[in-house]
């Protein structure tokens, strides 16, 4: 219908020339024809849409062969909070937990963040990550998972699921209360203690990795504190990204980077694998 209207409109423009302003009329007709062609070319993808699908088994066969080193590309995930009053730490904590629980090799994921209350989040991750992977939990952000109004017993028939889920929910509520009760003075003391550069506070000096309650490795979690001074422009989120990228260059130098806001959790644990199906496709 739109195409017919366009044809009649162009026909009207061509058959009704303005002889008193012929150059202006000719220029307007040429512009209308150009806009019409541009619109028609823009419709081709809509008329013939291309649907792309991802196949995780093909990705594993190419880059995760048994008995050979894992060749999947590393990914650095950035999370930052500029104002703890406007962006509560509990929201960022859910985002971080969803990152640590992604379905991706643990040595290929590095989560770098600029926010407080990290200690509570890292402790809870040691229990939350194996729970998600054991029962294929989706989404893997605890705040949003426990708030769902669904039948969580539908796809999980294991007898231990209900008991572990109840314990995990209680642990999540306790963690939330502790994080909300953190006073500003306590947070400042914690940050001041991290200013010391020694073996324990230097992530580059550590040879081991954090383990969950089952003894399996967790993805690397890096806390970055950026100095801010009154009277100096710290460029807000752009400055935070610059700091995260500089640390990423020294720490992991991953070829791919994912920047998330504190409230943008990963609602699909296989999202990074799906992205790699496109980004690592040689074609």
From TrEMBL:
<feature type="binding site">
    <location>
        <position position="237"/>
    </location>
    <ligand>
        <name>Mn(2+)</name>
    </ligand>
</feature>
<feature type="signal peptide">
    <location>
        <begin position="1"/>
        <end position="18"/>
    </location>
</feature>
<dbReference type="GO" id="GO:0071555">
    <property type="term" value="P:cell wall organization"/>
</dbReference>
<dbReference type="InterPro" id="IPR005150">
    <property type="entry name" value="Cellulose_synth"/>
</dbReference>
<protein>
    <recommendedName>
        <fullName>Cellulose synthase</fullName>
    </recommendedName>
</protein>
<dbReference type="GO" id="GO:0030244">
    <property type="term" value="P:cellulose biosynthetic process"/>
</dbReference>
<keyword id="KW-0808">Transferase</keyword>
<keyword id="KW-0328">Glycosyltransferase</keyword>
<feature type="binding site">
    <location>
        <position position="80"/>
    </location>
    <ligand>
        <name>UDP-alpha-D-glucose</name>
    </ligand>
</feature>
<keyword id="KW-1133">Transmembrane helix</keyword>
<feature type="binding site">
    <location>
        <position position="261"/>
    </location>
    <ligand>
        <name>Mn(2+)</name>
    </ligand>
</feature>
<keyword id="KW-0812">Transmembrane</keyword>
<dbReference type="GO" id="GO:0016020">
    <property type="term" value="C:membrane"/>
</dbReference>
<keyword id="KW-0961">Cell wall biogenesis/degradation</keyword>
<keyword id="KW-0732">Signal</keyword>
<dbReference type="GO" id="GO:0016760">
    <property type="term" value="F:cellulose synthase (UDP-forming) activity"/>
</dbReference>
<dbReference type="GO" id="GO:0012505">
    <property type="term" value="C:endomembrane system"/>
</dbReference>
<keyword id="KW-0472">Membrane</keyword>
<feature type="binding site">
    <location>
        <position position="236"/>
    </location>
    <ligand>
        <name>UDP-alpha-D-glucose</name>
    </ligand>
</feature>
<feature type="binding site">
    <location>
        <position position="86"/>
    </location>
    <ligand>
        <name>UDP-alpha-D-glucose</name>
    </ligand>
</feature>
<dbReference type="Pfam" id="PF03552">
    <property type="entry name" value="Cellulose_synt"/>
</dbReference>
<feature type="binding site">
    <location>
        <position position="87"/>
    </location>
    <ligand>
        <name>UDP-alpha-D-glucose</name>
    </ligand>
</feature>
């Amino acid at each position: 219908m739109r195409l017919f209207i366009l044809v009649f409109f162009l026909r009207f423009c061509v058959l009704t020339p303005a002889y008193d302003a012929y150059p202006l009329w000719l220029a307007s007709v040429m512009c209308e024809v150009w806009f019409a062609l541009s619109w028609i070319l823009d419709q081709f993808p809509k008329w013939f849409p291309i649907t792309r699908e991802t196949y995780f088994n093909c990705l594993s066969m190419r880059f995760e062969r048994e008995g050979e080193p894992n060749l999947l590309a590393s990914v650095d995930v950035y999370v930052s909070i500029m104002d703890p009053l406007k962006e509560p730490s509990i929201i960022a904590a859910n985002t971080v937990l969803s990152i640590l629980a992604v379905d991706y090799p643990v040595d290929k994921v590095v989560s770098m963040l600029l926010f407080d209350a990290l200690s509570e989040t890292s402790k809870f991750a040691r229990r939350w990550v194996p729970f998600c992977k054991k029962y294929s939990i989706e989404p893997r952000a605890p705040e949003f998972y426990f708030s769902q109004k669904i039948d969580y017993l539908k796809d999980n028939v294991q007898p231990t699921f209900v008991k572990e889920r109840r314990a995990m929910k209680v642990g999540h509520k306790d963690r939330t209360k502790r994080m909300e009760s953190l006073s500003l003075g306590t947070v400042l003391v914690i940050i001041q203690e991290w200013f010391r550069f020694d073996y324990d506070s230097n992530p580059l000096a550590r040879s081991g990795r954090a383990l969950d309650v089952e003894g399996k490795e967790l993805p690397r979690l890096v806390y970055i504190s950026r100095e801010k001074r009154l009277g100096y422009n710290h460029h807000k989120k752009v400055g935070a990204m610059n700091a995260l990228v500089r640390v990423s260059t020294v720490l992991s130098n991953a070829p791919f980077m994912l920047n998330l806001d504190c409230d943008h959790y990963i609602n699909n644990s296989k999202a990074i694998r799906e992205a790699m199906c496109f980004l690592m496709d040689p074609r």
